[in-house]
Amino acid sequence: MTDNVIKNSARGTSVVLQNVKKSVLALQHLIAMFGATVLVPILTGLDPSIALLSAGVGTLIFHTCTKGKVPAFLGSSFAFIPVILTIKELYNGDLAYAQGGMFVAGLIYVLMSLLIKKIGVERIQEVLAPQVVGPMIIVIGMNLIPTAFGMAKDNLVVAAITLGTALLINFKGKGLIKQLSILIGVLVGYAVSYNMGLVDISPVVNSPLMSLPPFKLPKFDIGAIALTAPIVLAVFMEHLGDITTNGQVVGKNFIEDPGLNRTLLGDGLATAFASLIGGPANTTYGENTGVLAITKNYDPSILRLAAVFAVILAFVSKVGATLTTIPNAVMGGISLMLFSMISLIGAKTIKNQKVKFSWKNIVVMSTILILGLFSAQLESILGFTVGIPINETVSISGLSFAALVGIILNYVLSLITKNKSDN
User: Fold this and answer.
1) Positive or negative, the Cα torsion across 339, 22, 66, 296?
2) Residue among 192, 203, 180 at smallest CA distance from 156
3) Distance separating alpha carbons of residues 255 and 7, to the nearest angstrom
C-alpha cells in the first residue's frame, strides 16, 4: 500500500511538473504574439483588449477546424491596416463599417476553403514546388526583419542584451532551459530596461484589476465591403506561405493534412468572429512559428493554452497593462532572432528538398527573391507599382505578388522544359 501511495504521489508530481512546463511554454508564445497583436488596434483605433480576446478565441476556432493538428497562433493582421484607416476616414471615424468589411472578407475565406476542397489539395501541391516554397519562406522572414530592427533601434544596448541572452541559452542551454530561451531573454531585457529607467509602470498602477472589453457590433455598407473584400486576394498567398512555413518547421505537410481548405476555413471563421465583436482580422503568426523553430516543441496544445491565456488576459487589465510596458527594444531583440530563424528555414527547405540548381529553378527562385525583397527599389527605378492594383488603397504586391509570379513562372517553365524533353 505504501508503494502505491509513493507511485501515485510520483505520478501526481510528474503531472504537475508537465502542466507547469506547458504553461511556461504557452506564456512564451503569448509574449511572442503580444506586441504585433496589440499594435494593429493601437494603429487603427480598435481596442487592444478585444484584439487579444479575438486572437485567443480565433486560435481556438482555427485549431477546431484543423483537428488540433496545426501548432499555429492567430493574431491581428497587418494587411488590413490601410483599408481600416481609409474606412475610418470615409465614415467619420466609425470603425464598425470596417468590421463589416472584415466580416465579409472572412466569409470569402470560407468560400475559398470550400472551393479548394472541391478542386483537391493535390492540384495545389503541384504548384507548391520546393523551388517556390523555399524562397517564399525566406522572403517572409527577411521582410519581417526590418520591423524587428525598427523596434530594436529604440535602444540597441537593450536589444543586444535581450538577443544575446536568448541566443546564448539557445546554443548552450539544455532541456527546459533551452526551450525557454525566448522567455528568459525577454525577462533579462526587461530587467535591464527597468534598471535603466526605460520602463513606465504607470499603466499598471492606473489600470483596474479586471474589466470587460468594449464589445462592438459591425455595420455593413457596400462601399466599405468593396474596399475590404479584395484584400483576401492579397493575403491568400500570405496564408499559404505561413502554413507552408509552419509545416516545414514541424516536419509535416499541413497543406495535405489536415488540408489547406481546413486552415483557410479556420482563418476565415476566426476573422469573421473577430469582426463581430470589434476586433481586427486574424492571420497565422510567423512570430509563433519562429518560437516553434527555436524550442523544437511542436505540441499544438501549448498553442491552445496560450490562446486561453490571451482570452483571460483580455479581462485582466493589470496583466495586460504589465505586458504593454515591455519596451520595444526588448521585443525588437527577440523578434530579430525569431524572424531570422524563419528565413533559415526557407534555406533549409531548398537544401533538404534537394532542389536542383538548373536554369529554370534559378530563374524561379531569383524572381521570387527579387520581387519579394526589392519591390520598393524596383518601383523607384521603374517609376510604377510592381504589383497588381486591386483598388485605390490595396494591391497584390511584395510577398503576395512575388509568390504569385513565382508559381506561374515555375508552371510555365516546367511545361516548356517538359515539352523540350518530350521532343
Assistant:
1) positive
2) 192
3) 43
What is 227-244 written as a DSSP string?
A: HHTTHHHHHHHHHHHHHH
pTM of structure: 0.72
Q: Pairing state of beta strands 387-389 and 395-397?
A: antiparallel
Rg (CA), the chain: 22
User: How far is residue 39's CA from residue 151's CA, in Å, rounded to a whole number?
Assistant: 12
Contact 139, 350 (CB under 8 A): no
Q: What pLDDT, in 10s, does the model give residues 238-291?
A: 787 788 888 988 989 898 899 999 999 999 999 999 999 999 999 888 778 888
Distant-in-sequence, close-in-space partners of 292: CB < 8 Å, separation ≥ 6: 71, 246, 249, 250, 298
Q: Which amino acid is at 400?
A: S
Q: Amino acid identity of 283? A: T
Inter-CA distances, 264 with 105, 155, 169, 343, Å: 12, 39, 36, 23
Give the separation between CA 378 and CA 384, rounded to whole angstroms: 9
What is the spatial distance between Cα 374 and Cα 380, in angstroms, rounded to a whole number?
Answer: 10
